[in-house]
Amino acid sequence: MSNHEQHDSEHQPVKRKEMSRRQFLSYTLGGTTAFMIGGAVLPMVRFAVDPLLAKGSESALVKVLDENKVTSEPQEVRFKVHQVDAWYESETQKVAWISKDASNKVFALSPICKHLGCTVAWNTHGKSEYDCPCHDARYSKDGKNITVANSPLDEYEVVVKDGVVYLGGIIPNTRA
Length: 176
What we know:
By secondary structure, this protein is an alpha+beta fold. About 25% of the residues lie in helices and about 30% in strands.
Protein backbone atom coordinates (compact mmCIF):
# COMPACT_ATOMS: atom_id res chain seq x y z
CA MET A 1 0.00 0.00 0.00
CA SER A 2 1.37 3.37 -0.93
CA ASN A 3 1.69 6.20 1.47
CA HIS A 4 -1.03 8.11 -0.34
CA GLU A 5 -3.55 5.22 -0.09
CA GLN A 6 -2.79 4.78 3.56
CA HIS A 7 -3.35 8.49 4.15
CA ASP A 8 -6.74 8.37 2.35
CA SER A 9 -7.99 5.42 4.40
CA GLU A 10 -7.19 7.21 7.66
CA HIS A 11 -9.43 10.14 6.75
CA GLN A 12 -12.43 8.14 5.65
CA PRO A 13 -15.30 7.89 8.14
CA VAL A 14 -15.42 4.70 10.16
CA LYS A 15 -17.92 2.25 8.78
CA ARG A 16 -20.20 0.91 11.47
CA LYS A 17 -21.69 -2.51 11.28
CA GLU A 18 -25.40 -1.93 11.03
CA MET A 19 -28.04 -4.30 12.22
CA SER A 20 -30.30 -5.58 9.51
CA ARG A 21 -34.04 -5.64 9.93
CA ARG A 22 -33.94 -9.40 10.05
CA GLN A 23 -31.43 -9.38 12.94
CA PHE A 24 -33.46 -6.77 14.82
CA LEU A 25 -36.67 -8.83 14.51
CA SER A 26 -34.83 -12.03 15.51
CA TYR A 27 -33.40 -10.43 18.65
CA THR A 28 -36.70 -8.76 19.58
CA LEU A 29 -38.81 -11.87 19.05
CA GLY A 30 -36.24 -14.10 20.79
CA GLY A 31 -36.13 -11.83 23.84
CA THR A 32 -39.92 -11.56 23.99
CA THR A 33 -40.31 -15.34 23.68
CA ALA A 34 -37.74 -15.96 26.44
CA PHE A 35 -39.54 -13.46 28.69
CA MET A 36 -42.92 -15.12 28.10
CA ILE A 37 -41.58 -18.64 28.63
CA GLY A 38 -39.87 -17.50 31.84
CA GLY A 39 -43.15 -15.97 33.01
CA ALA A 40 -44.92 -19.28 32.48
CA VAL A 41 -42.19 -21.62 33.80
CA LEU A 42 -41.06 -19.75 36.94
CA PRO A 43 -44.38 -20.13 38.79
CA MET A 44 -44.35 -23.86 38.02
CA VAL A 45 -40.80 -24.20 39.34
CA ARG A 46 -41.72 -22.27 42.49
CA PHE A 47 -44.80 -24.44 42.97
CA ALA A 48 -42.66 -27.58 42.74
CA VAL A 49 -39.81 -26.33 44.95
CA ASP A 50 -41.77 -24.39 47.58
CA PRO A 51 -42.78 -27.43 49.69
CA LEU A 52 -39.13 -28.42 49.91
CA LEU A 53 -38.21 -25.00 51.27
CA ALA A 54 -41.05 -24.84 53.82
CA LYS A 55 -40.26 -25.64 57.44
CA GLY A 56 -41.49 -29.04 58.55
CA SER A 57 -44.03 -28.60 61.27
CA GLU A 58 -44.21 -30.86 64.26
CA SER A 59 -47.39 -32.87 64.37
CA ALA A 60 -49.67 -31.24 66.89
CA LEU A 61 -51.11 -33.45 69.60
CA VAL A 62 -54.90 -33.50 69.92
CA LYS A 63 -56.74 -34.41 73.12
CA VAL A 64 -59.10 -37.29 72.37
CA LEU A 65 -60.29 -38.92 75.63
CA ASP A 66 -59.47 -39.77 79.24
CA GLU A 67 -57.15 -42.71 79.82
CA ASN A 68 -59.59 -44.40 82.22
CA LYS A 69 -62.10 -44.80 79.35
CA VAL A 70 -59.64 -46.86 77.27
CA THR A 71 -60.20 -50.62 77.49
CA SER A 72 -58.53 -53.68 76.02
CA GLU A 73 -61.37 -53.86 73.48
CA PRO A 74 -60.71 -51.41 70.59
CA GLN A 75 -63.10 -48.50 70.45
CA GLU A 76 -63.69 -46.03 67.66
CA VAL A 77 -62.84 -42.45 68.63
CA ARG A 78 -63.59 -39.45 66.43
CA PHE A 79 -61.64 -36.24 66.85
CA LYS A 80 -61.03 -33.00 64.97
CA VAL A 81 -57.70 -31.68 63.73
CA HIS A 82 -57.01 -28.10 62.75
CA GLN A 83 -55.64 -28.21 59.20
CA VAL A 84 -53.96 -25.42 57.23
CA ASP A 85 -53.68 -25.87 53.48
CA ALA A 86 -51.95 -22.80 52.02
CA TRP A 87 -54.35 -20.00 53.00
CA TYR A 88 -57.34 -22.28 53.63
CA GLU A 89 -57.88 -23.37 57.24
CA SER A 90 -60.36 -26.04 58.24
CA GLU A 91 -61.30 -28.53 60.92
CA THR A 92 -60.92 -32.08 59.64
CA GLN A 93 -62.57 -35.01 61.37
CA LYS A 94 -60.34 -38.05 61.92
CA VAL A 95 -61.00 -41.50 63.34
CA ALA A 96 -58.80 -43.80 65.42
CA TRP A 97 -59.25 -47.22 66.99
CA ILE A 98 -57.89 -46.91 70.53
CA SER A 99 -57.22 -49.76 72.97
CA LYS A 100 -54.74 -51.11 75.51
CA ASP A 101 -52.32 -53.97 74.87
CA ALA A 102 -51.42 -56.83 77.22
CA SER A 103 -48.95 -54.61 79.12
CA ASN A 104 -51.71 -51.99 79.62
CA LYS A 105 -50.09 -49.52 77.20
CA VAL A 106 -52.45 -47.34 75.14
CA PHE A 107 -52.14 -47.49 71.35
CA ALA A 108 -54.22 -46.13 68.47
CA LEU A 109 -54.59 -47.51 64.96
CA SER A 110 -55.61 -45.74 61.79
CA PRO A 111 -58.83 -47.12 60.28
CA ILE A 112 -57.53 -46.81 56.72
CA CYS A 113 -57.07 -50.21 55.07
CA LYS A 114 -53.62 -50.67 53.52
CA HIS A 115 -55.09 -52.63 50.62
CA LEU A 116 -57.25 -50.04 48.86
CA GLY A 117 -57.88 -47.31 51.44
CA CYS A 118 -61.34 -48.28 52.65
CA THR A 119 -62.30 -47.84 56.31
CA VAL A 120 -61.93 -50.88 58.57
CA ALA A 121 -64.24 -51.76 61.44
CA TRP A 122 -63.69 -53.85 64.59
CA ASN A 123 -65.39 -57.20 65.24
CA THR A 124 -68.05 -56.97 62.53
CA HIS A 125 -68.26 -60.76 61.93
CA GLY A 126 -68.10 -61.84 65.57
CA LYS A 127 -64.33 -62.27 65.30
CA SER A 128 -61.86 -60.27 67.36
CA GLU A 129 -60.24 -58.61 64.36
CA TYR A 130 -60.52 -55.59 62.11
CA ASP A 131 -62.39 -56.19 58.87
CA CYS A 132 -62.40 -54.16 55.66
CA PRO A 133 -65.78 -54.28 53.90
CA CYS A 134 -64.34 -53.57 50.45
CA HIS A 135 -62.22 -56.66 49.76
CA ASP A 136 -62.35 -58.63 53.02
CA ALA A 137 -58.91 -57.58 54.22
CA ARG A 138 -58.51 -58.51 57.87
CA TYR A 139 -56.15 -57.33 60.62
CA SER A 140 -55.37 -58.50 64.16
CA LYS A 141 -56.00 -56.35 67.24
CA ASP A 142 -52.45 -54.95 66.90
CA GLY A 143 -53.09 -54.04 63.25
CA LYS A 144 -51.10 -56.93 61.77
CA ASN A 145 -52.34 -57.88 58.32
CA ILE A 146 -53.97 -61.34 58.26
CA THR A 147 -55.43 -61.54 54.75
CA VAL A 148 -55.43 -59.57 51.47
CA ALA A 149 -53.54 -56.44 52.60
CA ASN A 150 -49.77 -56.44 52.15
CA SER A 151 -48.89 -54.32 55.19
CA PRO A 152 -50.25 -53.64 58.71
CA LEU A 153 -52.51 -50.76 59.70
CA ASP A 154 -50.70 -47.53 60.53
CA GLU A 155 -50.59 -46.19 64.08
CA TYR A 156 -51.16 -42.76 65.53
CA GLU A 157 -48.49 -41.22 67.72
CA VAL A 158 -49.90 -41.60 71.25
CA VAL A 159 -49.00 -39.53 74.32
CA VAL A 160 -50.66 -40.16 77.68
CA LYS A 161 -50.21 -37.18 79.98
CA ASP A 162 -52.03 -36.44 83.25
CA GLY A 163 -54.59 -39.17 82.60
CA VAL A 164 -55.50 -37.86 79.14
CA VAL A 165 -54.78 -39.54 75.79
CA TYR A 166 -53.40 -37.29 73.04
CA LEU A 167 -52.96 -38.35 69.42
CA GLY A 168 -50.44 -36.96 66.95
CA GLY A 169 -49.52 -37.81 63.39
CA ILE A 170 -49.70 -41.18 61.69
CA ILE A 171 -46.61 -43.38 61.90
CA PRO A 172 -45.80 -46.85 60.53
CA ASN A 173 -47.05 -49.71 62.70
CA THR A 174 -44.51 -50.66 65.39
CA ARG A 175 -46.62 -53.41 66.94
CA ALA A 176 -46.98 -55.87 64.07
